[in-house]
Amino acid sequence: MAAATSPPDAGHSLALAVVASSSAPLILLDGDLAVIAASASFHEAFQIDPEGVVGKPVFALGAGEWDRPQLRSLLNATLSGAADIDAYEMTLDSARLGERQLVLKALKLDYGAGAEPRVLLTVFDVTDARANDKQKDDLLREKAILLQEVQHRVANSLQIISSVILQGARHAHSHETKAYLREAHGRVMSVAEVQRQLAASTLGEVALRPYLEQLCHSLGASMIHDHDRIRLEADVDDSSVPAHDSVSMGLIVTELVINALKHAFPGRRQGRIVVGYRAEGDSWTLSVADNGVGMPPDVKSSRAGLGTNIVQALAKQLGGEVQASDSRPGVRVSIVHAKAPAAAAA
């Protein structure tokens, strides 16, 4: 570091010591914005020869690349006390270094009444950091575009699968085959709706009300032939859940709705199915209730089917317990996630 040309007082000496010991590029300027001292890190960072720097106006450093209107305005405002410059970005176009992005911090040093003002200028070269940020942004943008393309292809594939299954159901001669294919169609539609909601979610959270309302609409459109006879509705609070939980909940609802449509309204019986969700703190309940014929008398002895096993497995993943009750009329199946007693006590 180049030394000052006149004996410093205590405050001046402290300023010079700060400049000399700094690993950050620093320049100490006098009231005419001429260089009193500059740190070695400044000379090294901007390839400026230390010889002849002291006493030279800061705007004359290098090959004149520091003579910028923004820098003049910043330093004059700091010197006059009109502004405190904490983080000002400026572009430096250097013949040796090329274009560099700088962040400047200017501080007026007060040595007391009658003392000549001083300005301490800190110069951070953030060019590489900005380039890295841009590269990260470009990669994230590219990833988002690829994800959108994958989601678009998944949606198209699910639509094709759904259409093929539905066509198969329409042309099947066996009533049992038609029923199985319609169940498969409902399951595919559930996955498709989950995928659509996840594609629309930007925060990793899925709002349950629009999600379950749209899921009910999709299931009703594909599986209920007479909407005047059977209605499928959602009664859901304003909760949001992580995307991976919404997947399991959507599949549970699909299975329980399919089961209600199969068993609750035999013949031409009219009825209503309600998908519900309520949360309070960490506890929540997901339910599907109907006002149909109720539970069969031999339900405990009957063998669990595919849908029941799917619901049990998904409920376990969510940390919930499956509870079924006779609502008189109808059946209510709930997945109950209760806050643990230890957590509640804490």
Outline the secondary-structure elements:
Blueprint: H1 10-21, E1 26-29, E2 35-38, H2 40-46, H3 69-80, E3 85-94, E4 98-109, E5 118-125, H4 127-171, H5 175-200, E6 205-207, H6 208-223, E7 230-236, E8 240-242, H7 243-263, E9 271-280, E10 283-290, H8 306-317, E11 321-326, E12 331-337, H9 341-345
Parallel strand pairs: 7-9
Antiparallel strand pairs: 1-2, 1-5, 3-4, 4-5, 6-8, 9-10, 10-12, 11-12
Helix pairs in contact: 4-5, 5-6, 5-7, 6-7, 7-8
Q: Could you characterize the architecture of this molecule?
A:
With 346 residues, this protein is an alpha+beta fold. The chain folds into 2 domains: 10-125, PAS domain (Beta-Lactamase), CATH 3.30.450.20; 131-345, 2-Layer Sandwich (Heat Shock Protein 90). 45% of the residues lie in helices and 24% in strands. The protein contains 9 helices and 12 strands. It has helices spanning 10-21, 40-46, 69-80, 127-171, 175-200, 208-223, 243-263, 306-317, 341-345; strands spanning 26-29, 35-38, 85-94, 98-109, 118-125, 205-207, 230-236, 240-242, 271-280, 283-290, 321-326, 331-337. The protein has a 5-stranded antiparallel sheet with strand order 2-1-5-4-3, with helices on both faces.
| Count of alpha and pi helical runs | 9
Structural class: alpha+beta
Query: Strands of the largest sheet, in order across it?
Result: 2-1-5-4-3
Whole-angstrom Rg: 36 Å
Helix content: 40-55%
Total strand segments = 12
* Terminus-to-terminus distance: 61 Å
Main sheet attributes: strand count, strand direction, barrel closure? 5 strands, antiparallel
The dominant shape is elongated
Which fold does the CATH topology of the largest domain refer to? Heat Shock Protein 90
Q: For the residues shown, what is the average pLDDT?
A: 82
Q: What is the N-to-C order of secondary-structure elements (H for helix, E for strand)?
A: HEEHHEEEHHEHEEHEEHEEH
Based on the coordinates given, report the CATH architecture of the largest domain: 2-Layer Sandwich
The fourth-level CATH homologous superfamily of the largest domain is Histidine kinase-like ATPase, C-terminal domain
**Percentage of residues in DSSP E strands:** 15-25%
Under the CATH scheme, which class of the largest domain? Alpha Beta
Overall structural domain count:
2
Query: Would you identify the regions where 5 or more consecutive residues have pLDDT less than 50?
Result: 1-8, 341-346
